[in-house]
Fold this sequence. Notes:
Layout: E1 5-7, E2 14-16, E3 20-22, E4 30-34, H1 35-48, H2 50-61, H3 64-77, H4 80-95, E5 111-115, E6 124-128, H5 129-145
Antiparallel strand pairs: 1-2, 3-4, 5-6
Amino acid sequence: MTETTKICTICNVPKAIDAFYTHPKTADGRLGKCKDCCKKQAKDRRKNKQEEIRAYEKGRSNLPHRVAAREKYFKEHQSGEEHLARRCVSNALRDGRLAKLPCAVCGGKKVEAHHEDYEKPLEVIWLCKQHHVEVDKKRRSSIARCF
Length: 147
């Protein structure tokens, strides 16, 4: 074994040094288990302790500094109407009251809901990312010309 390889403490397989995560407190600067074993352990832990982790994440998301950060983000990035329209679309999709259609321009399958009017949250045009960006740019430039 050379300095460019290391044996994983979990699977006992010699692997290239870059197959191990860096760790500042180990002698060689790399974790003892390989990335694949780390990922497998994390996946198994999440599967076996799902309820415990869900409760932890729920409590963590309700910490005051996290709630304040979310509120600040939405104030800066989305109007209230835009946020409510997105939520209405999400809930309608979940409940089966609304179904995604192919992109209205190119027929692409990976689509986003575009709102012409946020006060009518379920009246959407389904557009792929590229065409959604283009439509929004046109809308913004026409608004800018008004001022």
